[in-house]
Specification:
Blueprint (H helix, E strand, L loop, with lengths): L15 E9 L5 H8 L8 E3 L18 E3 L3 E8 L2 E7 L10 H5 L4 E6 L8 H9 L4 E6 L9 H8 L7 E4 L4 H27 L1
Parallel strand pairs: 1-5, 1-6, 6-7, 7-8
Antiparallel strand pairs: 2-3, 4-5
Length: 201
C-alpha cells in the first residue's frame, strides 16, 4: 500500500498493532536496541548527563555514557503487512519510574535488558512486570569486555520463574533484536493461550 491506496485493486490491509516495552537499568542499551531495529528514525528523548544528576545517576560500569533518556524511546517495525510492532523504551532511572504505568497501558509484553556487570539494575523492571502479569523476556546484553555466564547461572541470579525466556543478545544487532521481539510475541501468545485453557477447564 502506498499513501493509503491499495495496489492492483487489492483492498487496503489494516494492520494489527502490538505494543512492546523495552525496560531495564540505566545504561543497559534500551535506546540502542530500539534504534537497531526500528524502520523509522526513532523518537529519542535523551539529554546530556549533568553534574546535578551525578548523585542520582550511577554511571559505574558505564562511565562512557554521556546522555540519558528522560521520557521514552519510540520505534516501529513491520513484521508482516498485517502486523506492526511499536516499541517503547522506558527511562531507566528511578526518578522516572512514575511514567511506566502510562507506557505499559495496553502493552502485549516487554523486553527486560540486563547487563551482567550491573545485574541488580534490572530487578525493578522484573518485579514491575511480574506484579502486573505482563509477559516479559530477559535479554542479556553482551557488552564487549564483560564476563559471559551460562544462561542458567543468570536465571538463578535473577530468581526467574521457569517459564520466563532468557536469551543472550547484542542490542546493536538488528537480527539479534528481532529474535528477542519474536520471543516476546510468542511468550505473550503462549501465556494468553494458557489463561484461556484455564478458564475453559
Amino acid at each position: 500500500m502506498i499513501f493509503g491506496r491499495s495496489q492492483r485493486g487489492k483492498p487496503p490491509v489494516e494492520p494489527v498493532t502490538l505494543k512492546i516495552l523495552v525496560a531495564g537499568g540505566f545504561g543497559v542499551g534500551k535506546t540502542t536496541l530500539v534504534g537497531a531495529v526500528s524502520e523509522i528514525r526513532p523518537l529519542r528523548t535523551e539529554e546530556l548527563l549533568t553534574e546535578a544528576g551525578r548523585p542520582v545517576d550511577d554511571v559505574s560500569g558505564v562511565e562512557g555514557k554521556h546522555t540519558t533518556t528522560v521520557a521514552m524511546d519510540f520505534g516501529r517495525i513491520t513484521l508482516r503487512e498485517d502486523l506492526v510492532l511499536y516499541l517503547f523504551g522506558t527511562p531507566g532511572q528511578e526518578r522516572f519510574w512514575f511514567m511506566w504505568d502510562e507506557l505499559s497501558e495496553g502493552a502485549l509484553g516487554a523486553v527486560v535488558l540486563a547487563d551482567t556487570r550491573r545485574l541488580e539494575d534490572c530487578f525493578a523492571a522484573v518485579d514491575y512486570f511480574e506484579r502486573r502479569s505482563i509477559p516479559f523476556v530477559i535479554g542479556v546484553n553482551c557488552f564487549e569486555g564483560s564476563a559471559r555466564y551460562p544462561v542458567e547461572t543468570v536465571r538463578r541470579a535473577l530468581d526467574l520463574d521457569a517459564d520466563v525466556p532468557l536469551v543472550m543478545c547484542d542490542a546493536r544487532d538488528r537480527e539479534s533484536v528481532k529474535e528477542i521481539l519474536i520471543g516476546v510475541v510468542q511468550h505473550a501468545m503462549a501465556q494468553a493461550s494458557d489463561r484461556r485453557r484455564a478458564v475453559t477447564t
